[in-house]
Amino acid sequence: MKKTVQIPLGSQHISLLEPIRFKFECENEKIIGVDADVGFVHRGVELACTRSFEFKQVGYVVARVCGLCAITHSLSYTLAAEKLLGYEANDRIKYLRMLMVELDRIHSHMLCLAHTAENAGFEALFMQIMSDRELVMEVQEAISGNRVQFDYISIGGVNRDLTPELSALVHKNLTLLSEKVDMLIGLFENNWSLSLKYKGVGVLSLEDAYTYNALGPLARAAGLATDVRAETNDFPYEALGYKMILESTGDIHARNFVRLREIVNSIEMCRNIIDNLPSGEIQEKAKGKPNGEAVVRVEAPRGELFYLVRGNGQNMLERVRIKTPTFSAIPAMMEVFKGAEYADAPAILASFDPCMSCTAK
Amino acid sequence: MFRSMLEAFKNLFKPVRTHPYPAEDIVLPSGYRGLIEYGIDACIFCDKCEKVCPPGAILFYQHESGEKEYRYNPWLCIYCGECVRACPKPEEALWQSEIKQRPAVVEDGANEGWFAWEEACKKSREEYAAAKKAAKTQNKSEE
């Protein structure tokens, strides 16, 4: 008779210091069953958006949902509120918003790559990627005035303009960064310890990605062509050199490569945005009060971010619903664990880049 | 192995990437979003900054004489700059400086002191509104 052992991972773990728990059912060293639990923290952001804050202030509240993708959260809410007000931003505002979202994607992907390198036992690479990430953080700080909670996007525009000095800084830092990323691509491809540990580990097949509704880099690494940037037309992504990055193997190595190649693509897009920045106002009046219901989808670094906003013509909103990428991707994540070795679990977990700060809102 | 040892030896003479923070100050970028500063002479007490502030870090205390007193909590402020944008007299009455706020100490009363102030502001406004209403009804009855 076969014996199985239950092993919990989390809710706090060395490989992921965030409140998520996986309960593995192991047969010897192999994981045969997984149970996930994400409901450890409840911050009541959705209720606060409808009870304590007026609709103009909510953009700053939802930015506090997550420190890393603050800009994506505030952008999603602002787009939804602007739809309800019947306002459409001019091209300059759209370009500046896109620039910040792409910079956000670069630094979020670099953080995830640093963690996956750390979980392979490659501490030096972890530190190197984190210090290279400073180049993007510097740009974001210079543009928005803040390092983490950017508070850059407001209803009707953006809060700060891009000066010629800032454009030069962005160009300079992105050039330095693209050299570093090229070096990282070489390292992730050729380094013996990274490729040995990550090729063929934590595989998500294309059928499973379809069945379990995988999102973001997790899906694109399995060959599933899903990206909100290609599916919506809120922003002119196609005109600025957006390319869908697809890999086929679906393992950790493929996920790392999707992220690395997306960084390269985002750097290219940022350069295009700065070179082709249209002229115009950066702040316009969006008058009225939100009435009706709006749904907005934006591609966050980790996948699709979904916002539903309902207003009834008053200052307070009726309902704000946030569906975050990690929460939607959990069934696919659980599928990846089945059949893997227990020792690989932390590395697989880090390669998903789960964001509990977003999920436990 | 020889190559990695050579790299390690070279790294000994490279400049460090970290910043020795408390010993050396961090250079903030120009346009850093710092403290909100207030000029009482230009203020017209329209309360727009108070209404628009997302965390409620600006409050006005209503004195019985009709004057208002401005109070700002820099430890509650999120430095979004919405108040400055709402102000009808920016740069004179309310502006955002590039000064970084120091950490709060017990004497600042960043929590308890502020909660007491919030209560006091709320009470002062209610009392002022009640007193004004009472004066109005008295005037009417005298007429």
Automatic annotation (TrEMBL), chain A:
UniProt keyword annotations, A-Z: Iron, Magnesium, Metal-binding, Nickel, Oxidoreductase
Gene Ontology MF term list: NAD binding; nickel cation binding; oxidoreductase activity, acting on NAD(P)H; quinone binding
SUPFAM superfamilies, per the entry: HydB/Nqo4-like
Annotated positions binding Ni(2+): 66, 69, 355
Xref: Gene3D superfamilies: Cytochrome-c3 Hydrogenase, chain B (1.10.645.10)
Ligand binding (Mg(2+)): 46, 322
Positions annotated to bind Fe cation: 69, 358
InterPro entries for the chain: ComplexI_49kDa-like, NADH_Q_OxRdtase_suD, Ni-dep_hyd_lsu, NiFe-Hase_large
Cofactor(s) in the UniProt record: Ni(2+); Fe cation
Keyword Oxidoreductase tagged: yes
UniProt keyword Oxidoreductase present: yes
Pfam family, one: Complex1_49kDa
Domain NADH-quinone oxidoreductase subunit D positions: 121-286, 289-359
Protein name (Swiss-Prot/TrEMBL): Ech hydrogenase subunit E
Species annotation: Sulfuricurvum kujiense (strain ATCC BAA-921 / DSM 16994 / JCM 11577 / YK-1)
Source lineage: Bacteria, Pseudomonadati, Campylobacterota, Epsilonproteobacteria, Campylobacterales
Automatic annotation (TrEMBL), chain B:
Domain 4Fe-4S ferredoxin-type: 34-63, 68-99
Any one cellular-component term (Gene Ontology): membrane
Keywords carried by this UniProt record: 4Fe-4S, Cell membrane, Iron, Iron-sulfur, Membrane, Metal-binding, NAD, Quinone, Repeat, Translocase, Ubiquinone
GO molecular function terms attached to this record: 4 iron, 4 sulfur cluster binding; metal ion binding; oxidoreductase activity, acting on NAD(P)H; quinone binding
Protein's UniProt name: NADH-ubiquinone oxidoreductase 23 kDa subunit
Species in which this protein is naturally found: Sulfuricurvum kujiense (strain ATCC BAA-921 / DSM 16994 / JCM 11577 / YK-1)
